[in-house]
Every structure is written in C-alpha cells, then in structure tokens.
Amino acid sequence: MFEAQAKDPKVANRTFLLLPPDASNANQQTAWTYAEAYEMILRYAAWLKEEHNIRKDEVVAMDFTNKPQFLWMWFALWSLGATPAFINTNLRDKAFIHSVRVSTGRILFVDPSIREVLSEHATSELAASNEGRGIETVVLEETTEQDIHQRTPYRAPNEARSGKKMKDSALLIYTSGTTGLPKAAHVPWDKPRSTSMGVGKILQLTPSDRFFSAMPLYHTAASLLCVCSTIGIGCTYVMSPRFSPRTFMRQAAETEATVMQYIGEMCRYLTVSPPTPYDRAHKLRIAFGNGLRQDVWQPFKDRFALDTIIELYGATEGIGATVNVSRNTFSRGAIGRTALLSGIINNMGQALLKFDHEADEPLRDPKTGLCSRSAYNEPGEFVAKLDAKAIKDKFLGYLGNEKATNSKILRDVFQKGDAWYRTGDLLRQDSEGRLWFVDRIGDTYRWKGENVSTAEVSEALGSHPAVREANVYGVELPGHDGRAGCAALLLRDGQTLDESLRRDLAAHVRKQLPKYAVPLFLRLVKGELEITGTVKQTKVQLRNEGVDPESVGEDEVLWLPTLESYELFGKKDWQALVSGQAKL
User: Fold this and answer.
1) How many other CB atoms sit within 10 Å of the CB of residue 512?
2) Are residues 103 and 136 both part of a single domain?
3) 435 shares its domain with 447
4) Is 575 a domain residue?
5) CA-to-CA distance for 78 and 100, rounded, in angstroms?
6) What is the pTM of this model?
7) Engineered SS bond to 522: which of 33, 264, 440, 558, CB 3.0-4.6 Å?
8) What is the pLDDT of residues 343-376, one digit of tens each?
C-alpha cells in the first residue's frame, strides 16, 4: 500500500511525514514526501540486507524514540519479510533485557539518543542470550546513517514477503508492564490492514489532512492507528518526538494539523495546563484516541474549540472494539454507541458477562457452569467471540508466554465448547445504547461488601479544583476484610493540604461518592506519580507499599477516622490498626 502511494503520480509528491519545527536539529530535513520516504526505506532495506543479512520471517528488535529512522527501519524490515519487535524506549535493565530476549531475535538496533540502555550489564546479558548464540546490538550512529543514505535503494522481490496470511504475526508490540514484566503481544497482519483501511473512514480523513500524534511509535496508538491510517488515505503524519503539555498545542498549530491523537491522561494534562496563545489558534477539528474521562471531556473540548471527539476502545493484542463519534453531549464520556435496533452488543460477537468480584472471574451458574449476560447498567466483563477450533485465526497471544495467552481465553461461556477472548475490562451499557468504561479487572477492589471502581473514585477526586492528579487503588489493612480505598494525590501549584482543604476534600468525596467508595486514605506524593510511556498510571508499587508510614518514603499519609476531615496518619495510628484498637 505504501509503495502504491509512493508511485502514484497524484500522491508521490504529497507530504507523508512532517516534523514540528523544534523536533529536529537545525539544517536537518523536517518533511518527506511519499516518494522520498519510499526511497529512504529502500536504502535502509539495502543496508539491513547487505550488512546484517536480515532474512524473511526472522524477528528483529528495534529500540527507537519518535524520529524518522523508526519509520524507515520498520518499513524496511517489512519490505524484507522480517518481523519488527518494538521495544519500549523507557525500559532499562531487567525489563529491557527481558523484552529483547523474549523477542527471540538475533539482533537489536538502538537509537543513539538512548544508548544508555546498553549498559555493561545489559550488553553482557544479551550477549549470552538466545540459546548461546548471543544477541548482537547495533547503535545507529550518525556515521552509519550517512552510510545508509549512500546505499543504492533495494526493493526486495515479492517472494521475500510471500506466504503471509492475515492471521500471521506482523509485529511484536509489548504490554506496558504495569502488572509485571512486559509481554510481547503478536499483532497479526489484519490489524495494520484493517486500521489502514478503516480508521481513516471513521475519522473521515482526506488527502489534505494532517494527523498529529505525540504518542510513542512503539505503541499501537501511533504505529497502527495513526501511521497506518495515514498511509491508507495518503495524507500526512505529523510526528512529535514526545508529549509535553507545554508544546503540544503550539506544535499542532505550527504544523497546521487537522486531527490530533490522544490518550485520556494527555487531555487532562492539557486541560489543566496554563493558557497559551495556541489554545484556539489551530486547525484541529477532531481529537481521536482512548481513555478520555467524562469529567475531562467537556472542559477539554471547550477549551480547545474542538468540533468532534472520537473515542476508540480496543487492545493491541485483543479482538473486539467499540467507537464513539461525539459532536454533542449525548454520548460524552462513553466509549461506544450501538443502535437501539441492534440491541445489546451481544449481536456483534461481543458480550458483557456478569462478574464475580470475589473470584475475579465471570459469574457462572452453579448448575450449568455457564455464564450469563449483564443487564443494562450492570457492569460486566467485555468479551469477544473466538472460533473454539481455530483460536489463532483471531488471537495469537503472547510470544513465549503460553500461560498469559491461555489466561485471555474463556471457554464454556454460553454453551459447552465455545471460546471467548477476555479483555479484562469491566464495561456497562445503558438503555440508550451507550457503552461506558467502569474499571480494569484487578483495579476494582471490594470494601464493606461492595465493589469500588477506581476509575469512579479517581474521577470524583479529580473534579476537585485543588487536585492535579489522583491515582486510586485498594490497600490491605490488618484485621479488615477486603481492601480500603487509597488515593495517591498531586495537588495543583500553590495548594497545600491544610486543615481547610482536608475538610473540603472529605466533604467533596462524600458528596460525589457512595459512603463505601469514599477513599479512607490519601497519600500526598512529594514528586510525580509514575506513569508508563503511554501516559497510563501505574498502581502495583503503590498498592504493595500500602499505607504503613514506614513504607511510603517521604510521602505523607492521611486517613479519614471520621467522615468530617482527613487527618495525618502516623506510626501510632498504624500500630492501632495492627493491634486491632482502631477499626474502619
């Protein structure tokens, strides 16, 4: 498809890749046409074949930040019939070594700007990997790039790519690693194909559009949903090197972008950032992405004068997706909409299953052993139908991790022998056909016999004017069943958690939430909350540290001994809980 665009006289001289003015060094190229990009890809292909003997069907690991070389390397590998493995550029040491090893590749190409990933320890570990053969590491130095640019373009014969099927792996993209070491998810060929042909239609892209993304290319959002959809239409991909609330809207305005990509937390950061001259001095008409919270949705849309928000729900390795094209307030905050005539989403090979929060599994009938569908407005796990006799036709799972792959497959759901893909997400659908995200399974916790959604609590706290960010999770307490709610907080600049604010926060959450969902603990974070490279909050370490004042470093912990006000929680208070003298 890319080659066809590059050779089409109507498209060849159209801009494919555009960098914001401040995204490259002075005197460096900032724009490439489809024809220029195609030639560059073929020069990289020549280098990969001639210098490194990259062959059909082999996996090749690449660890690159957002820069043109990422694209040239990616498509050059595809042109040779190889399978790229996109390493998360934020990984270091154990997680980095693990991810490269899991790829099964014999070679790793590294961006020189992050050469520190190749520490002495990492290099020696990788050299001893891969069944004794060792993994070669190559940093793409400036002299190497100069060599590549002098190569004669090499267009591999069609046989180099022949034999592939839509269900075969096109890419390896890694999970975020928020619950352990990253897993290498197979991305079958039908994913880039469907996004290149379908996303552009959803967004109503035209050849004159400029699609702006600051998301990392190692993630599906930028690589598939943005780059591949751009190629499908023949329009322009505007690549920011990284997300920054300070520069995002300026870059969008300066590049005359018409469509922007988001992850929900990005929108919140942008909405609470100081005003800029570019807030409305831009050409953006659509914001497209996933995870935009309901409390942020309208303020974000209003501040930046956006006509349309398109929220997409899906997963890198999963099947089943929903979309919400929203121009008014009816579906504000929803992750999808279905026509009432089609009924619940079950009619589309997707379903919401009643859920057992004690077992963290869909609820099964004790007599039949089968599952049942959630009612309207009842949260349930979102699942998508698989062919029980040919699971891999739709779901390839995780490379080298059969346990994790099997954990995503649910059998005997509505009838004996059937199979469904588990998303691990709780959603609910209302009687108006709107679909809402409730929580990630494992994030929802149980307290006082009730199920508490971390997303709901986070949204309530985030709506307080003094709160910049809230990361909510459940913590175990001595002598108490279930998990008590705790929120790691960052306050806005100039705010202090004095007596007045402590009382106001308590009153605010009491008003916003049912009594059982009111967070009993607050953890005032001194630095920044940890996030993944795709701007998602991490909870595992916070959850493991709990609320013992000895375990939270320099952070302060507060608790709600009465419903009137949050108070400092010290060693004596912790000991009272441990001894059973204090009960919540």
Assistant:
1) 17
2) yes
3) no
4) yes
5) 19
6) 0.83
7) 558
8) 444 456 899 999 987 777 999 999 999 999 999 9
